Amino acid sequence: MSARVDHDLVIVGSGFSGIGMAIAAQRDGRDYVILEKADEIGGTWRDNRYPGCACDVPSHLYSFSFEPNPYWSRAYATSDEIQDYLLYCVEKYGVRDNIRLRSTVQRMTYDEGLGAWHVTVGTADGDSYQIVAGAVVLGVGALHDPVLPDIPGLRTFQGEVMHTASWDPGATMIGKRVGIIGTGCSAVQAIPHLAEDAKHLTVFQRTPIWVLPKVDPAYPEWLVDAYEKRPWLMKAHRAKIKAANELRVLAFTKQPMLLKAASKAALAHMRSAVKDPELRAKLTPDYTMGCKRITMSNTYFPALARDDVTVETSSITSADTTGVTTADGTHHDLDVLVLATGFDVSGSYRHLNVTGLEGHTLEADWDAGIDTFYGVTVPHYPNLFLLLGPNTGLGHTSVVLMIEAQIGLVAKLLDARDHRGATAVAVRPQVVPAHMEQLDQRSEHTVWQAGGCSSWYLDEEGRNRTLWPGSVVEYERKLAKPELIDYEFTGAVDR
């Protein structure tokens, strides 16, 4: 490789996607660098550290298949434990020396003549520099770019305001009047902890959430020892979890009525903790289970039933220096306002200022419609790959499985490019419309679109642009043996 290209591969982001891609690049002998905007690796599990933060996928499935962890402390790991796992992977595989922290991608421009990307990187001290990369992998994730509510007067509020994704570790709620906006997954985990400390907690609920009991036992020491000494036992446990979760996909994608039994269990779970019929009515969803992400908690409903907790279903219309006012005219005096208002799932891509072939910009193309090929490649952007891109999220099992399948595809495409003596590989624009149409058709009758709710899974037109409308096994099979005719290989290596 000549001096005109600095690195064979630039990886943006250092969560599961970025770290997994880096380990694969090392395995394949590729020169790479990871650009991370924060001061430490970790992505979602570095940023989301609110009280009670944990994964809702079983620990032994929410980890790399090539790096099983016998030391998980319980069935569902906390954010701290997952972050520690990623830090361990970074050190074990020698990735640390290739990471540039506090390095923000300011813009990326494709050089067709060179078959490479010019990546402008901003540093913590305000300077910038450029890297020329043979390929770029965007592992920027979707669960860290907070959505902030548009509440008139919010800037005038003199109390504390914090989003669950940017939690102040020194914050205390003891003796304070706390409000929390939202009742999604983050809120379900945080609310019981906030209720324990707050003088009074007001939960501003727009839509009730389906909540199932959480079976989350701590792993006894003898089992941890068994997994450490007999890795095949741990592998079998992981396979069992994967198979069980895969069975759920039918209910989400083709037969939502199969969720009836789970819905009855969730309602019984609520009734056992909430005796007040008026409160139960507020907390009972009127949409099909699975339309929004299903949550699990044993403490959420007991917290909402406390005398010092109020569930407010009237929408917030404005804020002032001392609190917020709801549509029914009630003013709620607050010391702290917590925003559990979710994430902009495409925002991370919009902010990178990516320019591809013929003046195409990722931001404009995203606004026109999020069209990708299996969520990994995008027309008009050669040598650019997304990990956990559009339509590759999951509602029923671990996204780490999807990440590994995508990393495998990226490796295969780069190998095919190099083997052919080309400088660039890109998906053929002609194949993408049919692929997107198929995704639309398959999503039309899923619970996410036909379940009677609106969620962050859907775009402004109500189309699913977040989740894969099928099984992981199907996705893995399609990416394991890609049809190379769907891709075009251009240029000749002279760099």
TrEMBL record:
<dbReference type="GO" id="GO:0004499">
    <property type="term" value="F:N,N-dimethylaniline monooxygenase activity"/>
</dbReference>
<dbReference type="GO" id="GO:0050660">
    <property type="term" value="F:flavin adenine dinucleotide binding"/>
</dbReference>
<keyword id="KW-0274">FAD</keyword>
<dbReference type="GO" id="GO:0050661">
    <property type="term" value="F:NADP binding"/>
</dbReference>
<keyword id="KW-0285">Flavoprotein</keyword>
<dbReference type="InterPro" id="IPR051209">
    <property type="entry name" value="FAD-bind_Monooxygenase_sf"/>
</dbReference>
<keyword id="KW-0560">Oxidoreductase</keyword>
<dbReference type="InterPro" id="IPR020946">
    <property type="entry name" value="Flavin_mOase-like"/>
</dbReference>
<protein>
    <submittedName>
        <fullName>NAD(P)/FAD-dependent oxidoreductase</fullName>
    </submittedName>
</protein>
<dbReference type="Pfam" id="PF00743">
    <property type="entry name" value="FMO-like"/>
</dbReference>
<dbReference type="InterPro" id="IPR036188">
    <property type="entry name" value="FAD/NAD-bd_sf"/>
</dbReference>
<comment type="similarity">
    <text>Belongs to the FAD-binding monooxygenase family.</text>
</comment>
